[in-house]
């Protein structure tokens, strides 16, 4: 590392509601000499099966992230002081051609990796996890995925289409991008198409922490189970904001009742500290259905906790 990382704009000098709309008021990637972690937007929602609108997610999450402060007491870390985090803007992907969008995103993600930059990606719908996982697996080999979601997203096709927001983890498993002994969904709930959904999901390499498990067990015991499953190898974290109850995150395309509270989610994410997290995404924020920035703020805090985990790992010498 050369100079000290350039942090966010000081909110005691420039009011939060002034200035550029980067994530957490961080510098833009072109304003710093190196980027350890890029926050990058993918405004894409052509893969959705129900309500559209996640293409506006990146701008909404950035706008909802202005109140984040530099020190995280829960993990005792200043995430923007340990790592150079910068906002790399949006990756412009084709809204009319899912295959082209996936190819563009995979190429962009591989380029960040080649430059030694890890990604916190803000979607966009869940389709984007597939090209992001391709890039991560190209660098690290098959990875563990911890997937926070109401939905399995290991279905096969929709209307015969293989690349959708309900299918990324089946494709990733088929392509050998996942370590099938170390993948886990967290927050699963709601009606399925049939009992085979869960059986096939298991064959693809996933175990399940159901949303109701949070009712019957403590967050600490969920964290313990998660850490045991993910092990010591590379871990990719994918957070579909609909893992939260619609009361906590109404602004999303396929809401399901009975979900996690934002406190449960943030505490579970903190439990990733010390694991070898190589990349992460936050997807399915659809601001048209949001109220009072509830969903945007929840997503911004999810991003902050994930960056805090990376920063703590950096300080503790745990490198991706
Ligand atoms: N990935 C998200 N958010 N939703 C998938 C839902 C797929 C379905 O309509 O059955
Ligand atoms: Zn979902
Ligand atoms: Zn999803």
TrEMBL record:
<dbReference type="Pfam" id="PF00491">
    <property type="entry name" value="Arginase"/>
</dbReference>
<feature type="binding site">
    <location>
        <position position="126"/>
    </location>
    <ligand>
        <name>Mn(2+) 2</name>
    </ligand>
</feature>
<dbReference type="InterPro" id="IPR020855">
    <property type="entry name" value="Ureohydrolase_Mn_BS"/>
</dbReference>
<keyword id="KW-0464">Manganese</keyword>
<keyword id="KW-0479">Metal-binding</keyword>
<keyword id="KW-0378">Hydrolase</keyword>
<dbReference type="GO" id="GO:0033389">
    <property type="term" value="P:putrescine biosynthetic process from arginine, via agmatine"/>
</dbReference>
<feature type="binding site">
    <location>
        <position position="242"/>
    </location>
    <ligand>
        <name>Mn(2+) 1</name>
    </ligand>
</feature>
<dbReference type="InterPro" id="IPR006035">
    <property type="entry name" value="Ureohydrolase"/>
</dbReference>
<feature type="binding site">
    <location>
        <position position="149"/>
    </location>
    <ligand>
        <name>Mn(2+) 1</name>
    </ligand>
</feature>
<dbReference type="GO" id="GO:0008783">
    <property type="term" value="F:agmatinase activity"/>
</dbReference>
<protein>
    <submittedName>
        <fullName>Agmatinase</fullName>
    </submittedName>
</protein>
<dbReference type="GO" id="GO:0046872">
    <property type="term" value="F:metal ion binding"/>
</dbReference>
<feature type="binding site">
    <location>
        <position position="151"/>
    </location>
    <ligand>
        <name>Mn(2+) 1</name>
    </ligand>
</feature>
<feature type="binding site">
    <location>
        <position position="240"/>
    </location>
    <ligand>
        <name>Mn(2+) 1</name>
    </ligand>
</feature>
<feature type="binding site">
    <location>
        <position position="153"/>
    </location>
    <ligand>
        <name>Mn(2+) 1</name>
    </ligand>
</feature>
<dbReference type="InterPro" id="IPR023696">
    <property type="entry name" value="Ureohydrolase_dom_sf"/>
</dbReference>
<comment type="similarity">
    <text>Belongs to the arginase family. Agmatinase subfamily.</text>
</comment>
<dbReference type="InterPro" id="IPR005925">
    <property type="entry name" value="Agmatinase-rel"/>
</dbReference>
